[in-house]
């Protein structure tokens, strides 16, 4: 199924995209183009560009698509940053990316991601990724469709889908994040680029639940974003993880709130210490709800609205049942024989010190890697090593 056919199949069902400007259902208007009756919007490689405030860029990309200049259109979209004060990549590097099939490591270099590229490349070892996995896998039945807002590359949704979860939707404000996700993590799935500061370009009730992990405190209009999340979630179920606590030391560049302020906004049915979510995933057990005690001030929280599903799956499946499209099991490249190779002092302060288990991680032996690859390892031990990120199974073209 090509991108045009994929959108047609998507648009005529209950999950149609709507225009961010006039609210009309978007319909195909030729290969790579959608129409709301007034404006044409681009979509390429299963990534739909529906940002507002980028009128000149949208017009330029639409014109290039109409002229059959697909590579130039993609170059413009891949150069679009979260805000205009962030330097764009060199167009020559973007052209090189489009004309070759580099590793993910090389791709993020060509797109000029800097430190953010390291974060995306090695996210499976970061504690906040594990807390997101715990939140998602323990709170959503496998057959439910999820919208991940502020998804970045959609690592969480990719894991969810690879482990048998329903095909879902990734949304982010940066097109290149979603495009890289399509190429390396979530091929053939739906990705939508839009701003969370206005109406979401999704029909009401178009997903079962919404996941927002490590993102809400960056939104300028938190109440508006929460209202839109509730609108598109048919069950009203929101999974909001790793929200920084204004009453504790944190490294957020956003606008964190206090626990009471978050509760007032979300009206959650359950509150968790986000660190508890990380350890629940490491130990492959259900997370324990947060209980306020004197002097207890978590660095970040996780919130769930609505009732817990009857049959959450939670733990990782037996590694022997992992889909064959995943890459080969390898040792995490950040782990050395003596100590892990962290990228900066900020990483150490934000993650390694609050999560001491990280400093104890070491590279697995060649014998352990060989047993894992042959399917000869104890399934429980292998599940634990994969949960910790000692062993990983990235796409084959990741490094």
Provide the helix percentage. 25-40%
Q: State the CATH class of the largest domain.
A: Alpha Beta
User: How many structural domains can be distinguished in the coordinates?
Assistant: 3
Give the averaged pLDDT, no decimals.
89
Report the order of strands and helices.
HEEEEHHHHHHEHEHEEHEHEHEEHHHE
How can the largest sheet be summarized?
A: 11 strands, mixed
Q: What is the H level of CATH, i.e. the homologous superfamily of the largest domain? A: Vaccinia Virus protein VP39
Number of helices: 15
Strand order of the largest sheet: 1-2-3-4-7-6-5-8-9-11-10
Instruction: Report how far the terminal alpha carbons are from each other.
Output: 28 Å
Query: Number of DSSP strands?
Result: 13
Portion of residues in beta strands equals 5-15%
Global shape: globular
Provide a brief overview of the structure.
The protein has helices spanning 3-11, 55-66, 70-79, 91-99, 104-110, 115-121, 127-139, 155-162, 175-184, 222-232, 259-266, 274-283, 345-352, 366-374, 379-388, and strands at 27-28, 33-35, 40-44, 47-49, 146-149, 169-172, 190-193, 207-213, 233-244, 270-273, 300-304, 330-331, 391-392.
Account of the 3D structure:
The protein has 399 residues and is of the alpha/beta class. It folds into three domains: 3-88, no CATH class; 124-304, Vaccinia Virus protein VP39 (Rossmann fold, 3-Layer(aba) Sandwich), CATH 3.40.50.150; 326-392, no CATH class. It is built from 15 helices and 13 strands. The strands form two sheets. The protein has an eleven-stranded mixed beta sheet with strand order 1-2-3-4-7-6-5-8-9-11-10, with helices on both faces. It has a two-stranded antiparallel ribbon with strand order 12-13. Helix 7 packs across helix 8. The longest helix is centred in the middle third of the chain and has 13 residues, at 127-139. The chain starts with a helix and ends in a 7-residue tail after the last strand. The mean pLDDT is 89.
């Amino acid at each position: 199924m090509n991108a045009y056919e994929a959108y047609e199949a998507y648009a005529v069902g209950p999950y149609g995209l709507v225009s961010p400007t006039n609210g009309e259902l978007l319909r195909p208007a030729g290969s790579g183009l959608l129409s709301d009756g007034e404006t044409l919007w681009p979509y390429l490689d299963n990534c739909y560009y529906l940002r507002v405030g980028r009128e000149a860029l949208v017009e330029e990309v639409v014109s290039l698509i109409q002229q059959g200049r697909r590579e130039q259109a993609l170059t413009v979209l891949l150069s679009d940053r979260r805000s205009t004060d962030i330097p764009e990549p060199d167009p020559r590097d973007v052209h090189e990316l489009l004309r070759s099939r580099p590793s993910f490591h090389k791709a993020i270099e060509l797109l000029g991601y800097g430190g953010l590229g390291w974060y995306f490349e090695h996210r499976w070892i970061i504690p906040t990724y594990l807390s997101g996995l715990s939140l998602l896998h323990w709170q959503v039945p496998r057959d439910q469709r999820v919208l991940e807002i502020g998804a970045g590359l959609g690592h969480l949704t990719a894991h969810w889908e690879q482990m048998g979860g329903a095909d879902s939707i990734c949304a982010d404000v940066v097109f290149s994040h979603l495009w890289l996700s399509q190429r390396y993590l979530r091929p053939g799935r739906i990705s939508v680029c839009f701003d969370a500061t206005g109406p979401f370009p999704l029909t009401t009730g178009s997903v079962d639940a919404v996941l927002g992990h490590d993102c809400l405190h960056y939104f300028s209009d938190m109440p508006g974003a929460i209202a839109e999340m509730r609108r598109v979630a048919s069950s009203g179920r929101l999974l909001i993880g790793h929200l920084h606590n204004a009453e504790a030391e944190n490294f957020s560049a956003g606008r964190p709130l206090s626990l009471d302020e978050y509760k007032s906004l979300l009206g959650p049915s359950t509150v968790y210490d986000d660190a508890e979510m990380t350890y629940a995933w490491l130990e492959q057990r259900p997370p324990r709800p947060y209980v306020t005690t004197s002097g207890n001030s978590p660095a970040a929280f996780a919130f769930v609205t609505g009732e817990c599903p009857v049959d959450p799956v939670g733990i990782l499946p037996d590694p022997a049942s992992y889909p064959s499209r995943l890459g080969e099991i390898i040792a995490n490249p950040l782990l050395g024989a003596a100590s892990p190779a962290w990228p900066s002092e900020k990483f150490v302060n934000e993650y390694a010190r609050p999560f001491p288990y990280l400093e104890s991680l070491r590279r697995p032996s060649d014998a352990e890697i060989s047993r894992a690859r042959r399917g000869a390892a104890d399934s429980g031990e292998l599940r634990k090593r994969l949960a910790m990120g000692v062993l990983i199974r990235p796409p084959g073209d990741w490094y």
